[in-house]
Amino acid sequence: MSSRPQVRVPASPAQAPKVHTREASAATAAPATVTPMGWMHTARFLTTAAQLHHLPAMDTPEIAFVGRSNAGKSTCINTLTQKKQLAYASKKPGRTQHINLFALGKQGITDAVLADLPGYGYAAVAKMDKLRWQQVMANYLVSRENLTGIVMMCDPRHGLTELDDILLEVIRPRVEQGLKFLIILTKADKLTRAEQAKALSIARLQAGGGEVKLFSALKKQGVDEVAQLLWDWTHPAGGAPAPAQAAETSAAEPEALDE
Ligand code: GDP
């Protein structure tokens, strides 16, 4: 018999009044010249919630970032958005078990939302808090109506953990119904080329039809590709942006990364 922690999933979506963002459709709202990287750089803090029913219901495409603690999620979000402290907001005392929402979109028009779900599996968190948090996260992933895609961070040196597998099981029905899914293999700079290739092929088997991308904040590997994919997920009607320009991708702020 499995000793895995169990999570109950709700039968019906959370009910809350909907927040309608100003644009009717992302494709029409996006200026023709926007690039996926430029769009990612518009990220700004929207709100934080400790419980699902405290999240505003929205009709804007939302992408959730999940991952085991220390997988490199904050660094990845900060690298994609070029906002050094944005995802570290999730690590502030009192917010470690919150869902933090960031708005994306030019000229103050929100055409997508990033949801940063704080890392799971952190040993120092009390068991009850862990279980409560797993429940909130599972409820969110199963019932959030505007959820368009899930990005799972994985440190390829450790592979997918038991908690990652549980999360994959929770989201599988929605992924089978068309929810987008991406596994980001973080800290790719720590792997040789051969190890990268091996990690990619293993993760592709585990991704169940989702995408897998190598990512390094240190080497800026995979940044454009991930930005492009998130753009495509949230702008399916077209309005394809021009390729990212060097000026927008080279302004990276240095991160303190471990070796
Ligand atoms: P989180 O807990 O998932 O948000 O993880 P963090 O973003 O805080 O990263 C955990 C550790 O991994 C930190 O020491 C980071 O500096 C390091 N790290 C994250 N991304 C990279 C990367 O691309 N390369 C390297 N070498 N280290 C990284």
List keywords for this structure.
259 residues; alpha/beta; Rossmann fold; seven-stranded mixed β-sheet; two-stranded parallel sheet; 17% strand; binds guanosine-5'-diphosphate
Integer count of domains: 1
The oligomeric state of the chains shown is single chain
Biggest sheet architecture: 7 strands, mixed
Derived from helix and strand composition plus strand pairing, the structural class reads alpha/beta
What's the alpha carbon Rg, rounded to whole Å?
17 Å
In sequence order, what are the helices and strands, one letter per element? EHHEEEHEEHEHEHEHH
What is the CATH first-level class name? Alpha Beta
Distance from first to last alpha carbon: 39 Å
Strand content: 15-25%
| Helicity, as a percent range | 25-40%
Tally of separate helices: 8
CATH superfamily: P-loop containing nucleotide triphosphate hydrolases
Report the bound ligands by name, code or SMILES.
guanosine-5'-diphosphate
